[in-house]
Task: inverse folding
């Protein structure tokens, strides 16, 4: 890998064959020169440039933001990759670097911005929120600034968004809102407060998370279970009415009816949760 451009002491742009990459490492850019080989011992992370404007964003941030924030963001991405099977990329690294720097600047000025989604993120994306809390500890260790808990939620939000490359930030907000509202529909219709410690509830939340993602990406399951759905509709009329309310809600949000298979699997999860709360558990 040959150095093409030095962005700062910790970041350099390199040519790796026909591909341009960003190399991160303490001192990797110090006393280096264009055309030289990268000192492999100094390489900590390598980021591919997925989009054309990614390099420009690196260059802008490298001029505006102290190197310590790149180091912090790099460690968060590394932790996230370990927790969530290596799905994070250069765009997350850039977004976190920019966000954390701006968050510290706000705190230093005494400005605190509330995140209205904090409780939803804590409830529905607890693993991402835990990484966010860990990130706040890391930031305190690195620069001595204690960011408010809302920032753990903000960092978790970036992780949620990054887990689906097809979802944009606005769609991530919509996905969280839809998850919350679908659970509310189930609770209000069945007149049950869902047991958040129950395994059926955890499976329901996970299923709805992926269901909403499929809806927003236009990848709903195909219509193959029509016979089974009709059987369950006949056996569970009350839960079916709940399903119909969810279908209407989804249609109001995105203009799409839920597919037969999606209805079938949602209905199963609704039935399981209701039976557990009723103490029947016959399913």
Result:
């Amino acid at each position: 890998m040959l150095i093409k451009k030095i962005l700062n002491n910790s970041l350099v742009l390199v040519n790796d064959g026909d591909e341009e990459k960003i190399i991160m490492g303490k001192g990797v850019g110090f006393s280096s020169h264009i055309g030289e080989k990268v000192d492999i011992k100094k390489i900590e992370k390598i980021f591919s440039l997925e989009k054309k404007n990614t390099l420009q964003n690196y260059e802008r941030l490298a001029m505006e933001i102290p190197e310590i924030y790149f180091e912090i963001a790099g460690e968060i991405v590394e932790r996230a990759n370990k927790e969530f099977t290596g799905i994070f990329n250069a765009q997350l690294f850039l977004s976190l670097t920019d966000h954390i720097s701006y968050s510290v600047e706000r705190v230093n000025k005494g400005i605190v911005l509330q995140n209205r989604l904090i409780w939803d993120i804590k409830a529905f994306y607890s693993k991402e929120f835990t990484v966010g809390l860990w990130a706040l500890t890391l930031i305190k260790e690195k620069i001595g600034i204690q960011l408010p808990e809302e920032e753990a939620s903000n960092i978790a939000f970036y992780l949620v968004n990054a887990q689906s490359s097809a979802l944009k930030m606005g769609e991530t907000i919509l996905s969280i809102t839809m998850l919350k509202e679908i659970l509310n529909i189930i609770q209000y219709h069945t007149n049950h407060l869902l047991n958040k410690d129950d395994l059926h509830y955890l499976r329901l939340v996970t299923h709805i998370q992926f269901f909403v993602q499929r809806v927003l990406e236009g990848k709903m399951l195909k219509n193959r279970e029509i016979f089974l759905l009709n059987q369950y509709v006949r056996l569970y009329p009350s839960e079916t009415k709940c399903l119909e309310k969810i279908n209407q809600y989804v249609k109001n949000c995105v203009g799409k009816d839920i597919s037969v298979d999606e209805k079938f699997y949602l209905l199963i999860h609704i039935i399981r949760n209701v039976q557990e709360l009723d103490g029947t558990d016959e399913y």
Q: What stands out?
A: Residues 142 and 199 are 38 Å apart (CA to CA).
